[in-house]
Design goal:
heterodimer, A: alpha/beta, 8 helices, B: alpha+beta, 4-stranded antiparallel sheet, 4 strands, cell division (chain B), ABC3_permease_C (chain B), cell cycle (chain B), transmembrane helix (chain B), membrane (chain B)
Chain lengths: 224, 302
C-alpha cells in the first residue's frame, strides 16, 4: 500500500535521513521511535504525501508521490487516516462536523449520520458531539482525531505521537482503538516516544518497531 | 445544458456543508461588499454620463443633419433677384422639403446678441439667409453648389458638415471614454477582490491544511471561497447599482430646450436595461478573480 524505497530527505541544507526503505502492508502494525528531531514526523509526512523525498521514491498504491497531481494526492489521502500530534481541527465547527469532515470533502456528508453515533460512542465522545474542539481536553481531542481518521474506513492509519498529551489510562484506551482497527485489517503506523505503549501493544498484536537513528531506519525490536 | 452554465448554477446553489468548512471572515467580507457596491455606483455614473453624452451629440448631429443654410451676398439692387433665383433652384432640388428666406426681423433677432437691438439692418450690406429643411436622404450638396454657382453667383451653401463631423467624432470619443472608465472600474474591482481573497486564503491557511489532510481536492477548497466572494460581490453590486440608479434618477433635469450636457445626464427608455447587467457582471469579475487567486494560493501552499 505504502512503499518507501531508498528515500532521502534534506531539510535546511542538511540531510535528515537517507537510504530509507519501508513497506506498509495490509494488517501490519509498526511503531516508529527515535530521538526528538530524528525526523519521525517528516517520515510520516512522506508516507501520506505531505512531503516528497529529496531522492528515492515514495509510492502510494504503486503511484509515486513525486510528480503526483494534487487531486490524485487528495484521493489517496482519503485512503489514509492521519492522527496528528496537535490534532488539527477546524475550531469553528462542532466536533460532529469535524469528525465527519473527510466524508464532507468527499461529497458523502449524507452518510455521516449513519456512522457518527457509533463512531463517537466508540471513542467515548457521544456527549461532546456539539462542543467545539477548543472546549475539549487533550485526550478528547486525540480520540476525536482518531474518529476523524477512521470515518472513511481508510486502509492505513498513521498517528504521530497520539499519546503525547494524555495520561496512561487514556493512552491505553487509544491503543485499544488502534489494535481493534488493526485486527480489522488496517495497516497502522504510530510514531511515539512511549516505550510502555509499545510494550503494551506487543502484548496484544504482532508489532514491528522501527527506530530512526543516525539518519537510518533500523529494526528495534531487540531492545524492547 | 452547457458546462459553464451548469457550473454557475451549481456555484449559486452551493453546498451548505462545504461552505461551513471555511469560517466567515468579517474584514474581507466587508471589504468585498463595500468595493463591489462602490464600483457598481461608479459604473452607473460612468454609464449614465457616457449614454447621455452620446445621446446629446446624436441629437445635435441629427438636428443639424436635417437642415442647411444658404447665404446670399450680393449688391443691394441684385439681392431680391438672386434670392428669388435661389429659391427657384431650391424648389426644384431633390431632397429639399422647404426653403424659406428669413425675414428682416428674424435676421435682426439673430444679430441682436452681438450688435444689440438698435442695429439699422436696412442700411447695412447684411447677407440674405435662406433656411433649408431637408427630407428623405437629404440634398446632394456638391450638385446644388454647382447649380447655384451657375445661376446665383452670390450664394454660399452651408450644409453644416463642418459642425456635424466634430460632434460625431466627439460623441465617439465620449462613448469610448465611458467604456474605458467601465473597463477600469472592472479591473479595479478584480484587483480589490483578488487582494481580499488572498487575504482570506492566507488567514485560513490552517483551515486549508486541515482540509487537505482529510483529502479535500483543490476545487473543493477553492469553491468554498469562490462562492462566498461571488455572492458578496453580487450583493454589494446590487446595492451599489440600486443606489446609483436612485441618485441618477434624482438628478435635476431641464426642459427640452434647455437640456444640455449636465442637465441631460441620466437614463432614458431602454438605457435602464443596462443597469440589471451590472450585478451579474460584478459577480462574474469576482468569480474569475477569486478563482484565480485561490488557484495560485493553493499552488503555492502545496
Amino acid at each position: 500500500m505504502i512503499e518507501l524505497r531508498d528515500v532521502a530527505y534534506s531539510y535546511g541544507g542538511g540531510e535528515l535521513f537517507s537510504g530509507l526503505s519501508l513497506s506498509l502492508a495490509p494488517g501490519s502494525f509498526h511503531f516508529l521511535t527515535g530521538p526528538s528531531g530524528a525526523g519521525k514526523t517528516t517520515l510520516l509526512k512522506l508516507c501520506y504525501g505531505d512531503l516528497v523525498p529529496t531522492s528515492g521514491e515514495v509510492a502510494l498504491w504503486d503511484e509515486a508521490t513525486t510528480g503526483m497531481a494534487r487531486d490524485g494526492l487528495a484521493l489517496n489521502r482519503r485512503r489514509i487516516g492521519v492522527v496528528h500530534q496537535d490534532c488539527q481541527f477546524l475550531d469553528h465547527l462542532p466536533l460532529r462536523d469535524n469528525v465527519a469532515l473527510p466524508l464532507t470533502v468527499a461529497g458523502r456528508h449524507h452518510e455521516a449520520e449513519a456512522y457518527l453515533p457509533d463512531l463517537l460512542a466508540w471513542v467515548g465522545l457521544s456527549r461532546h458531539a456539539d462542543r467545539r474542539p477548543p472546549e475539549l481536553s487533550g485526550g478528547e481531542r486525540q480520540r476525536a482525531a482518531l474518529a476523524r481518521a477512521v470515518i472513511m474506513s481508510p486502509e492505513v492509519i498513521i498517528a504521530d505521537e497520539p499519546t503525547g498529551n494524555i495520561d496512561w489510562d487514556m493512552s491505553q484506551r487509544l491503543l485499544a482503538l488502534l489494535v481493534e482497527l488493526n485486527r480489522m485489517g488496517k495497516a497502522v503506523l504510530v510514531a511515539t516516544h512511549d516505550m510502555n505503549l509499545i510494550r503494551s501493544a506487543k502484548a496484544q498484536v504482532a508489532v514491528r518497531t522501527l527506530r530512526l537513528k543516525d539518519r537510518q531506519l533500523i529494526a528495534a525490536g531487540a531492545e524492547l | 445544458m452547457r458546462p459553464a452554465i451548469r457550473t454557475a448554477l451549481a456555484l449559486l446553489a452551493g453546498d451548505a456543508q462545504a461552505d461551513r468548512s471555511v469560517p466567515p471572515t468579517g474584514f474581507t467580507a466587508r471589504l468585498t461588499l463595500f468595493t463591489a457596491a462602490a464600483m457598481a455606483l461608479l459604473t452607473v455614473f460612468a454609464l449614465s454620463l457616457s449614454l447621455a453624452a452620446g445621446r446629446l451629440a446624436t441629437r445635435w448631429s441629427d438636428d443639424l443633419a436635417q437642415t442647411a443654410t444658404l447665404r446670399i451676398s450680393a449688391p443691394a439692387e441684385q439681392m431680391d433677384a438672386q434670392t428669388a433665383a435661389a429659391l427657384e433652384v431650391l424648389r426644384t432640388t431633390p431632397g429639399v422639403a422647404t426653403a424659406r428666406a428669413l425675414t428682416q426681423e428674424e435676421e435682426q433677432a439673430l444679430l441682436t446678441p452681438w450688435f444689440g437691438p438698435d442695429l439699422p439692418l436696412g442700411t447695412l450690406p447684411v447677407p440674405k439667409l435662406i433656411e433649408i429643411t431637408e427630407e428623405g436622404r437629404g440634398i446632394d450638396a456638391t450638385g446644388l453648389r454647382a447649380r447655384l454657382q451657375a445661376e446665383v453667383p452670390g450664394a454660399v451653401l452651408d450644409d453644416h458638415t463642418r459642425w456635424r463631423e466634430p460632434l460625431v467624432a466627439a460623441a465617439g470619443r465620449l462613448r469610448g471614454l465611458g467604456a474605458l472608465a467601465i473597463v477600469l472600474i472592472g479591473a479595479s474591482t478584480a484587483a480589490m477582490i483578488t487582494l481580499a481573497a488572498q487575504s482570506a486564503l492566507s488567514a485560513n491557511a490552517q483551515v486549508i491544511r486541515v482540509l487537505r489532510l482529510v483529502g479535500a481536492r483543490d476545487a473543493y477548497i477553492a469553491r468554498a471561497f469562490v462562492r462566498r466572494f461571488t455572492l458578496r460581490a453580487l450583493t454589494g453590486a446590487a446595492a451599489g447599482t440600486l443606489a446609483g440608479a436612485v441618485l441618477v434618477a434624482l438628478l435635476p433635469g431641464g426642459s427640452d430646450e434647455a437640456r444640455g450636457v449636465l442637465t441631460g445626464i441620466g437614463f432614458s427608455g431602454g438605457d435602464w436595461l443596462w443597469l440589471p447587467l451590472i450585478p451579474p457582471l460584478a459577480a462574474a469579475v469576482a468569480f474569475a478573480a477569486t478563482r484565480g487567486a485561490a488557484r495560485r494560493m493553493l499552488e503555492r501552499q502545496s
